[in-house]
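Continuing the batch. This is chain 6 of the set; chains 1 through 5 are on the previous pages. Same settings as before, nothing changed between runs. Recording input and output for traceability.
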Amino acid sequence: MLDWSTLHDAYGPAHAIPGLLDRAIGGDQEAVDRLRGRLCHQGTITPASIAALPQLADMAKTEDVGDWALDLAGAIASGLLQHHGADEEVARCAATLAELRAMAAARLRSGLDGKTYLSRLRAMLAFDGQILWFEALDDFTDSFVTRSRTVNSCPLS
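Output for chain 6:
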């Protein structure tokens, strides 16, 4: 069993992470938000972020909680694309990252609302190591690029 007190997250010792994971599984949105802040604070990852990936992958398999877990794992994966000094830990997570990528791809389907589709696509790109496209699509999540109207007919007839 993992001793979270030996790891650190964005705010210090990671001893709070297991309790937050338990609460988040139960649908506590505050716990999900706190996990995001502690495990992927402004795109920065920590040893606790990497250690959380296998649990997030297990949670992502469950439809009820899977989406937020997959999104958080994708955010952590995007942080792995920058200098983090934990190459050995990341190498040990290769199978987990591949599994998360497959889940993101499987959940990327037509019929999703735009925000969910974009979230799945960004997660998949992060798991693929495509930091450029992951970051470029961020502009569509923060209102930098506004939504345009749907055109129903071609004006060039």
